[in-house]
Amino acid sequence: MVFSSTSGKKEIFMEEPKKLEELKAFDDTKQGVKGLVDEGIAKIPRIFHHPRDNFKRIGDKDYIIPVIDLGRIGEDGSERKRVVERVKEASETWGFFQIVNHGIPVSTLKDMIDGVVRFFEQDSEVKKNLYTRENKPFIYNSNYNLYSKAPTNWKDTFVCKFSPNAPRPEDLPSVCRDILLEYSNQVSKLGSLLFELLSEALGLAPTYLDDIGCNEGLHVVGHYYPPCPEPELTLGITKHADVNFITVLLQNQIGGLQVLHEDTWIDIPPVPEALVVNIGDFMQIVSNDKFKSAQHRVLANREGPRVSIASFFSTGSHPNPRIYGPLKQLVSEDNPAKFREFSIPEFEAHYKKCANRTPPLMHFRI
């Protein structure tokens, strides 16, 4: 199958049977992308090649993502109001902001990053025993959507569901068990504070978003991006928006995260001891378009490994009969509902069909 790129040059992609064969061969190694790097490859396999259109618009360094200090909101009412206003502005304008003095000890942040590195860099034979595509309390693999039509990304991942039903400690790898339990507890507390600030930013009672279940589910996801010999041909994560309420991201000091803002890719450089917070699709819907779920991506890099830990707050981690839609307090005759109501399973089922090609949010817009 042949496609034309915007540069006028032709790009040739593998026919589906050949691609499926190579995807399966890669998957069967149970070594992930790190296994390829450990072999010393100089050229990345074709399954990791992305269409040229994926690389349009380079990072723009003229913009700066807001960095918000949470250090004094518990002791100064006027400071809390200022923080709420900054959270409101960032959520409306960017859909992204960074937070410092957030309450999670620096030692815990460091230990969490070190724990992800220990997991992915442990003996390959030990790690292979945990490689799976089944729905388990702890899932390790490379590219959860490997067999979809979405391009294959240059990263390996583990996923652990922590609430509402916490895993048994023995279900977690011993090499990072203790820090996973500690970090998930700390980030859950932080999530409660963030939902309070977001509720107030919407003009609602502090507990409103928590009361409607936005804080019920928590997934902690560890990403490991090995150094890439041909970063110009692939991506760490393809352009996407998060299908949740909010995400809290911890990253090491190797950059690559970008947000799409006014049709331009903006770098989100790592800030020491900071966490990145971004608005997800569900939050954009319940806020009736007031808060923005921004598309973002991660570039591949010759340096590495890049390590990040994403904590996803969403009710999608367990069966939930709730129906969500724009909050009635935010809808009026002058500001009618901009989205139809939906259930979490309905939204996630549609998201899987999109394969990162079409924003699933558009399907629910009125």
From TrEMBL:
GO terms for molecular function: dioxygenase activity; metal ion binding. Belongs to the iron/ascorbate-dependent oxidoreductase family. Residues 214-316 form the Fe2OG dioxygenase domain. SUPFAM superfamilies: Clavaminate synthase-like. Its cofactor is Fe cation. This is Fe2OG dioxygenase domain-containing protein. Keywords: Iron, Metal-binding, Oxidoreductase. PROSITE patterns: FE2OG_OXY. It comes from the Eukaryota. Gene3D superfamilies: B-lactam Antibiotic, Isopenicillin N Synthase, Chain. InterPro entries: DIOX_N, IPNS-like_FE2OG_OXY, IPNS-like_sf, Oxoglu/Fe-dep_dioxygenase_dom.
